[in-house]
Amino acid sequence: MKHLFLEGPVRTGKSTLLLECISDIREYAGGFCCIRLTDSSGNVRGFRLAPPDADYREQPYDGSLPDIFLESGPDGMKKHPEVFETSGIDYLRKSTGKKFILLDEIGGFELMSSPVRSEYYRTLASGIPCLGVIKSAANTGTMIRRSGFAAEIAAANAQLRRNLVTGFSAEIIEYSSAASVSVRAAVNSFVDSVISR
Hints:
Largest sheet: 9 strands, mixed
CATH topology of one domain: Rossmann fold
Strand content: 25-35%
């Protein structure tokens, strides 16, 4: 296994589990994490990209925060693909020499960007192990229905998932709250193996 990804229902703790598992070794990680932004009632208002050593806990929404790639507004969810095309690619290119690369919550609308897709594939082929969360087919379908995103995202997500497994020796583990102990053990084992390289 060269890369490890988690998938599963939204807001069940996939990214939190990964970030907890690497909390003491984040200086060895390249890539990015996604931070959920909420209003005072706890409703999701958006998401932003940040480096792996950022405080990954939910943050209060503030439209002036850097690298917000998705935010809710009066007309629904507004996408900012340029965040992936600038900061996202920059985070990945700065990962040279790191022990592993964090790819948190990939497989969404950013796949509609050819430069982002190319950078993902370059990263996966770089020889540096990747650890991340990929949107499941079910979550991608829900995102398309609820947010009016392009249906082509589902095909791009399916293609990425196939390529991960068949072309890049990745394992995709189904996460659920009931399986959190065994998934945490698998993540810790993966992290131990890449740190000891």
